[in-house]
Amino acid sequence: MGSRTVPGDQSPEFTQALSDLRGARLRPEVRLTEVPAPQRIAPYAVALTAEVVGAADDEDELASGRFVLLHDPSIPDPWDGAWRAVTFARAELEPELANDPMLGAVGWSWLTDALASHHLGYTAEAGTVTRVVSESFAGLSDRPASVEMEVRASWTPVAGNVGAHLVAWSDLLCTIAGLPPLPEGVIALPGPRR
């Protein structure tokens, strides 16, 4: 896993964070790909995209997202710390959920529950939950309506292994994909990653 850093400047903390991310044990349905990290937001950054796919014989994408970890030792005021996780998760939902007034609150709780289930400390959390309803007309009227949920969130990890924050975010991604949670104490066996 590579990253973007200031040329000639190595951060032991960021190097450890990359190691933590590499060591994160995700469910086998989650496929990670490293992508170019954003420029000019922080001196150190790494970005990953993820997709949740069905069983081995069904490779349909159930959800997709992006996880960006930023590190700025100067501790920017809005972050309230030297680290910032910036995330995005999207999945198509059942059409009957389009009018559920609690959908946004439920989507946000899926994130906070995932962080809590891994006993992770965080601060300065912020985000949005968006539902997108698409209806087709005229020449496309034979297509059924579709509903997508998007969860955009950022938070500042407080101490510990930042790889665990990637695992918690991947749990959110699996939840919006409709996968059942793993039972308490069960660890998913690593699957092939792209």
Q: Strands across the major sheet, in which order?
A: 1-2-3-4-6-5
Query: How many β-strand runs?
Result: 6
Average per-residue pLDDT, rounded, comes to 87
- Count of domain modules: 1
Distance between the termini: 12 Å
Q: Which range does the strand content fall in?
A: 25-35%
The poorly predicted ranges are: 4-8, 190-194
Q: Structural class of the secondary structure composition? A: alpha+beta
Number of helices: 3
Report the radius of gyration as a whole number of Å: 18 Å
Percent helix range: 10-25%
The largest β sheet comes out as: 6 strands, antiparallel
Q: Any descriptors?
A:
single chain, 194 residues, alpha+beta, 6-stranded antiparallel β-sheet, 3 helices, 32% strand, disordered C terminus
Furnish the topology, listing elements before pairings:
Blueprint: H1 12-22, E1 30-35, E2 44-53, E3 61-71, E4 83-93, H2 103-117, E5 122-134, E6 146-157, H3 163-176
Antiparallel strand pairs: 1-2, 2-3, 3-4, 4-6, 5-6
Helix pairs in contact: 2-3
Pfam families: DUF3000
Protein name: DUF3000 domain-containing protein
